[in-house]
Amino acid sequence: MKKNQLFDKRFLMTFFSVIAVLVIVPIFIQRPFTVNVLILCLIWSIMGIGWNFIGGYTGQVSNGHALYFAIGAYTGALLLKWFSITPWISMWIGAAVSALVAFVIGMPLLRLSGHYFAIATMAIVESARIIFLNWGLIGGATGVTFLEKNMSSFFTLQFVAKHPFYYVCLIFFALMVLLSKALENTRFGFYCQAIKANPESAQSVGINTTKYKSIAYMLSAAVVSIGGALYAQYIQYIDPMMLLPLSTSMLIVLVCVMGGIGTVWGPVLGAFLMTFINEYSRSLFVHINGMNFVVYGVLVILIVLFLPKGLLSIRFNKFYKKERKSHD
User: Fold this and answer.
1) pTM of the model
2) What are 238's strand-pairing partners?
3) FRET pair for 20, CA 20 to 30 Å: which of 124, 163, 262, 324?
4) What is residue 234's predicted lDDT score, i.e. its pLDDT?
């Protein structure tokens, strides 16, 4: 790879192949349920990519990213309902608000590491859930309904058919994948990976670990917030119990764990696998409440036991074996 080259040839070939498949496949799918699953796959991929900036590249495992998911969703919903501001603009406002909140919260929290940081982020999101539940201005426990029929679908991102919204999500998905890959190959990405490998060593060679962890946390919050804004416009109703349970934060983490932490494509692979299993098992075991979680939980246990570096590690293992044989 040439010096300062953000995208290598192999990545570009993979990227355009994936995007081409994702553009073409829905054209032949008319079943709304399948398109619904694909939309959720893209939204969870965006959130996984966002979490990966702080958890995957920097090594700070946050269990509280549901907070930024909710901020993005509420900002988009309320600005559309109160001021008729299009989600095309409000989602960036939500991202800015999330980044600001992450900066404020991150100042004390990023001094912690390991289990202490994870537990502290869980406490933050639980506190936020209680605040949102009792905050009457934003709907409290009743939530917010913001279906707009008097404006154009493109303006509100509220389409009758699912295909247009799918392609909107695909645009954001493509942008986030490119952002993830670009940052991976920048000085910022190298510093984050150095901090993850050994914070003390990184600091000893002059890397400002506090600064770069803070930037990674803010960027992570902003990207997850965009996922939340898209999710809200798709569902058209939000409430704190839907957006802020601890399980939402854990699912964002598991998307990356299942696919491969600290890689560009790991969160994407994990999101597609997790969403397909979750949605289809829920449909299959519709008469057995909670069975989809059992299936999902067993799969997670198997992956953690036998593929601790995620599903993407299968590909890398084969690559390393070929390299070793060629050297022998």
Assistant:
1) 0.90
2) 144
3) 262
4) 94
Non-local CB neighbours of 22 within 8 Å, separated by 6+ positions? 38, 42, 170, 173
- The Cα 77–Cα 87 span in angstroms is 8
**Alpha-carbon span 267 to 276, nearest angstrom:** 14
**Residue 301 has what pLDDT?**
83
At 11, the amino acid letter reads F
End-to-end CA distance of the chain: 25
Please give the pLDDT value at position 317: 58
Half-sphere exposure of 150 (CA within 13 A, CB side): 4
Compute the distance between CA of residue 305 and CA of residue 179 in angstroms, rounded to an integer.
31
- Who wins on pLDDT, 114 or 136? 136
Extended strands (E) in 172-281: 237-238
b/e map 289-328, b = 16+ CB within 10 Å: eeebeebbeebbeebeeebebbbbbeeeeeeeeeeeeeee
Look up residue 125 and give its amino acid: V
Return the H-helix or E-strand segment holding 125: helix 114-134
Structure tokens given for 295: 């299936």
